[in-house]
Amino acid sequence: MSNKKINVLYLDDEEHNLTSFKAAYRREYNIFTTTSANEAVQVLSENEIHVVISDQKMPNLSGVEFFELIIPDFPDPVRILLTGYADIEAVIDAINKGQVYRYVAKPWNETDLKITIQNAFELYNNRIQLKQQNVEIQKAYNELEKFVYSASHDLRAPLVSILGVLKLARTENIEGKPAEYFGMIERTVNQLDGFVQNIISYYQNLKKGEILASIDCALFLDEITQHFEFFEGADNIRFNKMVQQDGELNLDEMRLKMILNNLLSNAIKYRDETKSDSSVDISMQSDANSLKLVVKDNGIGMNREDRMKAFEMFFRASERCTGSGIGLFIVKEAVDKMGGEISVSSELGQGAEFEVVIPNKR
Questions:
Q1: Helix 15-25 and helix 110-170: axis angle, to 10°?
Q2: Which CATH number characterizes residue 348's domain?
Q3: Contacts of 339 (CB under 8 A, 6+ apart)
Q4: How many domains does the chain have?
Q5: 349 in the Ramachandran plot: left (φ > 0), alpha (ψ -120 to 50) or beta?
Q6: How confident is the model at residue 273 (pLDDT cuts 50, 70, 90)?
Q7: Residue 318: inside a domain, yes or no?
Q8: What residues contact residue 52 under an 8 Å CB cut-off, 6+ apart?
């Protein structure tokens, strides 16, 4: 592109200025000149114009107004404004409205203007290259996204089959070391399945629009907690539920499930096994304005440094847990998508409390 001849469009209401410009630069550039804004737009639509030069003071519209007019349909050409007036307001307008690259005083210096046009052309090339690179990056990102999402779905089927076979094996009264090995396999497969489900949840949250549904907090909470009845470690935890719903609650049910599922999963994974009484308190309070969801446990807790990083992708507060480290990241993303806020308070050895506030979208 560097060897390409520069196409320059010059708009001015004074013919002698156009003639002088063409005489000075006709050997170096392909020059298009006109005294009409309509003709200038026609030239832009029919040719690849790299640099557009316009006089500021014209009878029907100013140079800034002309630039503002063409930006939506022709954003790529680099714009240069010429003026014979020391008008600071015109300069400000040129920068803000016309997105002008350079402001050149008339009468122009031939060498200086040539340098300005060359620099403008380099900027044009850089913009086009950047635009092409962005298209290629977006294409690669979309292909990677499709692959990860498809692979995650495809992985779940064999994992579910393995878990089914393991449950079937349990009915055979296997004891001793074989039973221990089967248990280790089941725990590992469950961890992998949880990671795959988190990836699917992440892409669902990323791509799906908001789908509002009427939420019955009591039924919703019962449904979610029942899902965790056979979760490893859940049989040693006491779940305390508190619901207070005032009027109709409309939220994105899919994302609300993501939030509560991940918070409860973390509460179970990070339970304090040294405590005889492990508990998780779940509170849902809603009114006409919002839903307040609180999940509080008496598990191992987090120190201040871990609290600051809790919502970062792949961060795990405890090395004893082999989780994926993206659960709380997904929670934060889902809360943000719903226009809500989330906070965490925790002390090491004292458990953790997550508070989520989401607007009621009636």
A1: 80
A2: 3.30.565.10
A3: 358, 359
A4: 2
A5: left
A6: confident
A7: yes
A8: 8, 9, 11, 40, 44, 67, 70, 74, 77, 78, 79, 80
Domain boundary (49, 82, 108) is at 108
Does residue 276 form part of some domain?
A: yes
Identify the domain containing residue 344 by its residue range.
211-359
pLDDT, tens digit, 9 for 90 and up, residues 165-211:
887 877 777 788 888 888 788 778 877 777 777 777 777 666 777 78
Strands 102-105 and 78-83, how do they pair? parallel
Q: How many Å apart are CA 167 and CA 183, to the nearest integer?
A: 10
Task: Kindly report whether the peptide bond that precedes residue 178 is cis, defined as omega within 30 degrees of 0.
Answer: no
Q: What is the CATH number of the domain that holds 57?
A: 3.40.50.2300
97/228 same-domain check: no
141 contacts: CB under 8 Å, gap ≥ 6: none
pTM of full prediction above 0.70:
no
Domain presence at residue 206: no
What pLDDT band is residue 1 in, cutting at 50, 70 and 90? very low
